[in-house]
Write a structure and sequence with these properties.
This is Mitochondrial glutamate carrier 2. There is one protein chain. The chain is mainly α. The protein contains eleven helices and no strands. The radius of gyration is 20 Å and the shape is globular. The two termini are 12 Å apart.
Length: 313
């Protein structure tokens, strides 16, 4: 990164990166949420047997737009979320450099973890609202069928209604339900992802006249780092998803915090349950960050701002 830290173009690039990435992978994220939330039904079988089964049932019962349930709030809040995450990492890397303008690995981990910590301001309410909308069809089916075949149309929900109801009942803390689990997942993810991405990206071919990697290497680096980090924190993601789900299906377990959730999932569903939706999560996060890092490093905002006469150097 340059010696001078200019945040405006980085913030815009982070926002653009988040919107492009989410639009591409959101249906897989919906499938991931439903797989992570499902518990064994009274008939001894889960509602969905696989990623493909979940996607096909959702598409059949709720239509194409059902696959994008909850995408509105995600697209709205992904701009500040990704901007905070990507710009925060750059900022912390900038201020943590030593006298030789270098970063040690522990400082890289600290910079990434710091970015993950700050992003939960936007991530927690975004994830909370998104999960309710994504999981509505699954939980409604559990309530109606109690393990029988068939599915029902999910209840009408909106992010605005959910947010207002939570705010009236519990104040501002209502929309931050599950923030500790979100922090556990995102700080750990970012502490792993950003140093790994930086080292992989540094190995690639440079763009002509620049110290930045060519776009395809940034994409591959983001993809690879995203695969490793997203799979590694899947147990935290499963716990976060369970804790943030407000409406449980008939007969499904409720949890009283992170430790209680870990304990009940392990005792009732076994250790494999902590990796429910792991493949989906990798399919979501890896391309999401590959796309995000590529857009971020292409410097689209710098070109747009330069076109209107804003100085970015």
């Amino acid at each position: 990164m340059d010696a001078s830290f200019i945040p405006i173009p980085k913030i815009i690039n982070g926002g653009i990166a988040g919107i492009v990435g989410v639009t591409c992978v959101f249906p897989i994220d919906l499938v991931k949420t439903r797989l992570q939330n499902q518990q064994v039904l009274p008939n001894g079988k889960p509602m969905y047997s696989s990623l493909i089964d979940c996607a096909s049932k959702t598409l059949k019962n709720e239509g194409f737009f059902g696959m994008y349930r909850g995408s509105g709030v995600n697209l709205l809040l992904i701009t500040p979320e990704k901007a905070i995450k990507l710009v925060g990492n750059d900022f912390f890397r900038h201020i943590l450099k030593n006298d030789k303008n270098k970063l040690t690995l522990p400082r890289e981990v600290l910079a990434g973890g710091g970015a993950g910590l700050f992003q939960i301001v936007a991530t927690t309410p975004m994830e909370l609202l998104k999960i309710q909308l994504q999981d509505a069809g699954r939980s409604a089916s559990v309530d109606k069928t109690a393990g029988a075949e068939g599915a029902v149309k999910p209840q009408k929900l909106s992010a605005t209604k959910i947010a207002l109801d939570l705010f009236r009942e519990k104040g501002i803390l209502g929309i931050y339900k599950g923030f500790r689990a979100t922090m556990l997942r995102d700080v750990t993810f970012s502490a792993m992802y950003f140093p790994l991405f930086a080292h992989l990206n540094a190995m690639g071919k440079r763009r002509e006249g620049s110290d930045q990697a060519v776009f395809y290497h940034s994409f591959i680096s983001g993809l690879s780092a995203g695969c490793v980090a997203s799979f590694s924190v899947t147990p935290f993601d499963v716990v976060k998803t369970r804790l943030q789900t407000l409406h449980k299906g008939a007969g499904e377990q409720s949890y009283n915090g992170i430790v209680d959730c870990f304990r009940k999932v392990y005792m009732l569903e076994g250790p494999k349950a902590f990796f429910k939706g792991a493949f989906c999560r990798v399919l979501v996060i890896a391309p999401l960050f590959g796309i995000a890092q590529t857009v971020y490093y292409l410097g689209i905002a710098e070109r747009l701002l330069a076109a209107v006469g804003y100085e970015t150097q």
